[in-house]
Amino acid sequence: MSKQHILVALVLIGIAGGAAFLLLTEDDTPEVATPAAAQVAAAPAPEAADPEEPSSAPVETQRFDEDLEVEDWDEEPAAAEDEMRFVLITDRSGNPVPFAEVHLVSTSRGWGGLGGFGDERPPRAYREAFKSSSDGFALLSPLPRRRFRIVAMKDKLVGAEMYEQGKEQAELPKGADAVVVLHPLKHLTIDVIDEGGSPSPHIRVQAARPGEGVAASNPFSMFGGRDRGGRDRGGRSRRGSSGTTGLSRFTSAPDGRVILDISKATPELYDAEKLDVHALLPGNSRVSESVAMPQQGDVNVTLRIPLTCTLDLKLVDSKGAPSKEPITVTWYVEFNRDSWRGGERGGQRGERGGRGGERGGRGGRGGGFTSTSPVGKQTITGGRAIIGGFAPDSKVHFKAQRRGHVEETTICELNRQPLQSFEVLAGDLRPSLIMTLVDPSGVPIPRVRLSTEIKYDGVVEEEGAARQQRIMQMLTQSGTRDRGGRGSSTGRDGRLKLSARTGMSGEITIDIQRQESGFGRMFGGRGGRGGEDKKERPLATVRFEALEPGEERELGEVKARAYAILAAGIVIDGAGEPVAGARIRIESTAAESTNDRGGRGGRGGRGGRGGDRGGDRGSSSASGRSGEDGTFVINGFAEVDKKYTILAESRRTRSQSQDLLPGTQDVRLVVRATGGLAGRIRLADPTLGMRIEVRLRSMSAATDAEGNRISLRDGGKFEQTRLAPGQYELEIKVNDIKDTVIPGLNVPDGEVARPGALADLVVGLDFYRAQVTVLNGAGGPIAGASVSFRADGRTVRGASGDGSAPSGGERGGERGGRGGERGGRGGERGGRGGRGGRGGGSRTDDLGRVSAVLHRSANVTVTTSADGFARSTINNARFPLNVRLSGGESMTVQLSAAIPQTEGMGSWRLILGDANQKVDPSDSRSIWRSAFGGGGSGGLSKTIAAGSTDATFENITAGTYAVRLIGVPDFRNRGGGGRGGRGGTGGRGGRGGFTPVVLPLGQITVQPGVPSQTAQIALDPNAIINSLSGN
To answer: Which residue range forms the structural domain that includes residue 203?
Structure first.
C-alpha cells in the first residue's frame, strides 16, 4: 500500500470518529439541557445570579400582645411540600416586577407604617426580607406556616396577598403558586390648625373606615380588651370594635402636618370610598372630617381644632436626674361632672362612645364615668416627649410605669399657655416588705389568699379622687402593687411579699379576701368594704418604716387574729375503718341570705395530719385531707355571720354533708360508696309550656338547705349519680310554685336507685290556662290592650291570643325550663330568665284575647288598660273572663303653689294612688314602681316640672284617690355617681341607693259622668324644701 493510500485512510477514520462524537453529543444534549433551560425560564432558583444584590437587612420581628387578635390557626405549621413554591410579583398591568422586596408575615394584623394600624408596629415576620429575581419570581419554600401573608414593595408600589397551603386558587401564570400585584401608594395629607389658623403640631390624628375608628371603639378594650374579631367567609381578618384597622400618627412640628401612606397592604383602608379622619384631643371633644378617597393619587384634609395646650414632658427620677430608659406613661384627664349635663351630653353621644387621646375614654350614655377622650398611653424613650391636644385649665394625671419599679403619678394642672413644661416623676426601683403570717400559736399559715392594703403616713386621699383612681386603674388595667394589691397569697411556708413605695412609712392591713366585681370595688357597692358591710377588725396589722429603693425588708412573724381550728376529727368507712387521703371540704354560706356576697369565710386551710397541708386557694371553702390514720385538722378564718357545712369524699366514696360549728374537734365523717337516683318527671299538660325545677336535698342537711338542682333530659328523664348513700327529699316546683315533695328516697351504697314513686311522676295537675277577652262598650274586641295578672301577689306573664299556639311568652318559659334543668348557676339564670320570655307580653291579639297559665288555688287580680279607655281592675277573677272598657273621666289637679326650683332634683311626679293603700317611705322599690309604673294598683302618674301648678289625668276611673308628690333626684349630679353612689344599695338605675322624697298632699274624688273636672290641692313649698334637707 502506498503512502498516499495510508494518508487517505487516516483522514476517513478521523472524519468518521468526529461524526460519531458529534452524534453522541447531540443525543445527550436534549436529555439534560432542555429541562434545565425550561426550569430557569419558569422560575429562577434563588442561587441564580441577579444584577442587584438582595438586601440583607432583616425585617423587624415583633410578637404581638395577647390582647390583640391572635388566632392559633394562623400559627399552624405547614405540611410537607412535594415541590418548590414560587410567588410572582407583578404591576397592575401584569408585567413582572424584578427585584421587589418580599416579606412573609403573620396574618393576624396589617402592615405597620404602611396603613396597617395605629401603633406603627409591624406584624410578626417569619423570615428575613428577600427580593424577587429579574423575571419577578421569588421562592416561597420552605413555607413558614400553613397560612401567612405575602407583602411585596418596590419604590412607591406595595401589594399584599394571603397564601394558604392546599387551598385551590384561580388560574395562575405558569410556574407561580401565588401572585402579588403592586399598587401605587395613596397619600393622605392632614393639616391640623387651631381656631386662629395656626398649625397645631404634636396632635394625634387617625384615619379609619367610617364607624371603625375612635367613634366605634369598645370602651372595655381601650387598653387591651380581648376583642377577637375572627374571620369572615373569605378568610380575611375581621377586626372587632377596637379600631385596629385605623392608622394614626402625630402631626409634625412646626407645620402641624402629617402624611399617611395608605397601601394595598391594608385593603380595608385602600379600597374604602371614604375615610374618617379624627384629631384626638385628650379630655376634649375630638374633631372629625369625612374624606372621599380616589382610586389613586393624593388627598388633603384640614382639621380645625379648638384651643389646646401642648405639654413638654421630661421624665426625672426621685433625685431630679433625667430618666432616659423606656418608660410607659399613661395619662387621664379628670372629668368634670358639669360635662355630663346640658346639650353636650346628648349632642355628642355618638362621639363619646370610644377611644380618645390615644386610647380613648369610657363612652356610652353621654360620657359615662369620664369625659370624651381622657385616656392616653405612650412609651417614652430618651426621657422626653411632646404631646399636644390637652384642654386648657384641666388637670392631667400622668402615671409612669416600668417593670420592677414603683408606679408614680404626677398631677399637672394646666393653664391656658399654648406650650407648658412639666417634670413627670419616674418611679424608683420597687422595694418589698416580707413577712411570715402565723396563727395565734405561731404556726405558719400556708397558701391562703388575703386582701392587703398599705396606708402611708401623712397621705390623705379624698373619696372622690380615690374613686377616680380606681376607675382609671380598671380602664388602664394597671396594678396597685405599692398599695398592697387586691389579692395576695402566702407561700408554702406562710411567707407573704408585698411591694411598697420608697421613702414613706405606713401600716399594712391584712384581711380575708372578699369576692366582689370590679364595679363593686370602684364604687364601694354591695359586698365591698365601702358598701353596707359592717367594719370588722382586720386579721392583722403591722407597721413599717421608710424604705430605700430596691430594699427587701424582713418584718418577721405577723400573727393573724381568728385563724384557728375550723374542724378536727376522723374519716371512716361503713365498716368503721379509717380512710386515708379523703378530701374534707368545709363550705360557708351567709347566715341571713344566700345571695349576700359581702365577705366569703372559710378561706385557707391547713390540711390534715400527715396529709396535704394546703388549702384550696381557688374555691370559697377550706379543705384538707385525712392522714394515714384517717384523722384530719383543718384551720381557717371563721366568721360569725356564716353558716358552715362539712363533708368528706374520695374517688368513689362520699359522706353526707352535715352542719358544722366552727371549732368542733370531734367530727366523725362516714364515707360510703356513692350511689344514684333515677326516674322520670313530666308535665300533665305539656302544651301549657310550664317550667319544671327539681331539687334534691339530703334529709340530714339543714331544713333550710336549698339542695342541688337536677337536670331533666328529653322526656323528663334524669339520673343523678355520685350521691352519698342515705335518705333524700325531692322537691319539684312548677312555674316557681311548689308542686310536689317526695321525702324518704333511699340511695343505696354503690347503686342507682329507681324508686317506683319516680318511675313516671306527673306534675302540674293544678294548673290551667286562663283566658281574658277585652271588649269596648259596643262589644267589639280591643286589640293591643294591656292585661296584667297577679296571682297571690305574684305577677304572672300572659301571652297574646288563646294560647293554642306557643307565643313569645311560652317559648320563653320553655327555654327557661330547659335552662333551669341543666343545673348550675347558668341553668338557674336560664330558669328565672324564662318567665314568659322577652316580648311574650300581655297584649291582646286582634280578637281582644290574652291568656296566662295560673294555679287553681290562686287568688287572681286582673288589671286591664287601653288607650282612650279607663283602667279596669277585677279582684278574685274567674275565667274565662270578658272585660268591657269604657271611656273614663278627665281630672285636672290644681296645686295652690308652684313646684319650687330645688338643687339636686331632676323632676317631680304627681301620683294618684289607691286611697286605701298605705305607703311605706322606706320601701324605695314600691315607690319607684308607683312613680314610673303607672302608680300601682288603679293609680296614675304624671311628670310635673318645677314652676308648674297643675297636671291633667285623662281616662281615669271614678273614685277616690290619694295625691302624692314624689321627687326624682338628678342622678347625674349625685356624689356617688352611677349605680348606688358610694356605699348605696344599687337599685334599678341607681334609684335604690337613697330614700325617695314622698309628700302626701291629700285626697281627691273623681265623679262619674262629669266632664273636665278640677280639684284644688294645697301645696306648701317650704314642706318640699324641708323634706329635701331632711333627706
So the answer is: 188-215+245-306
